[in-house]
Amino acid sequence: MEFILLGIYFVILIAVGFYSMRRTSSLQDFFLGGRNIGPWMSAFAYGTTYFSAVIFIGYAGRIGWDFGISAVWIAIGNAVLGSYLAWRVLAKQTRYLTHRLDVSTMPEFFEKRYDSKALKVFSAIIIFIFLVPYSASVYQGLSYLFEQIFGIPFIYCMIGMAAVTGLYLIMGGYFAMALTDFIQGIIMVVGIVLMVIYVVSHPNVGGLAQGMERLQAIEFELTSPVGPGGFIPLFSLVLLTSLGSWGLPQMIHKFYAIRDEESVRRATWISSIFAILVAGGAYFTGAFGRLFLNNEIPIDAITGTPNADMIMPKLLQVALPKSLMGIILILVLSASMSTLSSIVLVSSSAISMDLIKGVLAPNMKKKNVMIIMQILCVVFVILSFVMATTNRAGILTLMSFSWGTIAGSFLAPFLYGLYWKGVTKAGAWAGFLSGFLTSIILAIVRGLNAGDAPMIGTIAMLVSLAVVPVVSLVTPKFSTNHIETIYGEVEDSKLEFNPEIQTIQR
User: How much is the average pLDDT of 398-403?
Assistant: First the structure.
């Protein structure tokens, strides 16, 4: 049954790719879907990019084990700070400025806002390099589940996922990704509801009240507001996974492509509801992992050591009937492939659009840029695959290091740059370098491990947020002409974007 569902799912993805090919004739179409994506597709694209196998396999299992029911605070943070406030604060202004400046990527925005081609190059390199570990963590998360359910070796699982992701993305670009994200989002909502019902009603849990009592019998703090993991680690996880999304190019990318202001308003609520359902369901079920595994973390057959990334696959195998496992497998596959496609598209654009077209060959035809981007999609998939197969670092560790480094570098310069006219070039550079170096140095000093990685990423973001305004207040300001060029004098409500001619009209 699982193989039949999997086959149907892959056929749908390839069909979407072929359908999207007819709507993808230009670089703008391939990378931004013509900047004409509606609210439901935009919201689901944001949500499915946000939540991948990393949350279902790595985060839900390990954090649920360490923090118990209090892990649900992370889901609340993801819904309120990572989704609702992200759309409220960033979406409208990002859409306005990227249209006004005629930019399609975050590095392009940095170049125009801070009048620095070097900043564009630096940010593009960071994107391409440091999204690889995140992509690798997604591969690992899905492969653990495949291996557990089907008995298929780890490496073959990743080869299959890489091939299908690369194929439909190369065929249809952003529109194919957004359309498949919408389909995948529906699967995720249905799957997570079924997963919660079956886990809570399983005899090992015995219903919500009985399950809470059984967790308390193991360790009372597993049902407390903070949990045995402690406040600071929990707070770090909330900030990293919620505020960190504000500085990730694959998330901000969704704001570039949305159709209009009305779509932004509707997508804000759709995305937030999606987040609380998916993230809340994942962390809530992960909190009961101890009840299914006799309070012992599973042993990795390869390393011979306990591996928290195997908690959720083992839990699901025990809790769910075989007939439902196919749906849950598709759920995790959907979450993973939507995230992978977003990461791959943004990473390939960093090299093709920001470095090659933007710096090395500015006169290159856009058709050739699109071909290079398609080739780089394949290259990035291969690099991620190699890291996932050669590096057995935990899923949470890889993801936290990637998010922390990128968000630590980008969050402050991007957020301040959207609204504050007083941010200087020196302030932006100080924010980039302070966040980047904080993440790298602390990772070297402390070592990459699941306990410290979220805290390192959070510190990197906070350092950068503090450094940018301090440096900007004491360094030379941009000219009035430059500031007017960036922000203009017309309110966004008086602007109408025409996707057919790709300009802003009064």
Answer: 75
